[in-house]
Amino acid sequence: MATTDSAWSGNGYYRDLSAGEIAHRLSFAARLPVENPFPAELLSGPFRAAAVLVPFQRSELGWSLVYIRRTTKAEDRHSGQVAFPGGGADPMDSGPVETALREAQEEIGVDPGEVQILGRLHDFVTITGYQVTPVVGLIPYPYHFKADANEVSRVFTIPLPWLADRRNRRNELRYLPSPYEPLPVIYYQVYDGELLWGASARFTVRLLEILFGQEND
Prior knowledge:
Blueprint: H1 12-15, H2 19-26, E1 48-59, E2 62-70, E3 82-83, E4 86-88, H3 96-108, E5 116-120, E6 124-125, E7 130-138, E8 152-159, H4 160-164, E9 169-174, E10 183-188, H5 198-212
Parallel strand pairs: 1-7
Antiparallel strand pairs: 1-2, 1-4, 2-3, 2-8, 5-7, 6-7, 9-10
């Protein structure tokens, strides 16, 4: 059952967090090693560069993260899934920040000039063969999103305290081809009808660990 944003409005620990403090806590994150949980024999590089925008918003109720649900029109392995706006790098992109901003503009109509970049996480290798850089940014609230109907079926937010509550997520094993051992995959509980899992859930949990350490219980 979905939990509403108002249920978290009294959580002072998260409400008092400033954008400057988020940026400070992210300042070392990009220097962490690439996270690749897959056996090298199963998934070896070179990987295609990609980036996603991890958008923070702050309302009168506190901090939330913005997610999208991809349409089922696109014929790829991520169709219909909850994700952050993003995609593969373009040869003309100057780096992951430009990739993330360009994709967010294309997919949900976010003006790059209205995004305050707070930092980035370390890179992640995904089962689809991408090396993804999550770029963390702050966008205004409220914001009039303009979803690309061919790529995005919904734009929505999930409150930061709900995401940080470990009771709202679990690990399930993903079975790989023999002889490889299964790998844990993060699944959140359904929130407002949406299921956050897989790579996007992994980006979310790593962000929370960097921001709050072991305090995100």
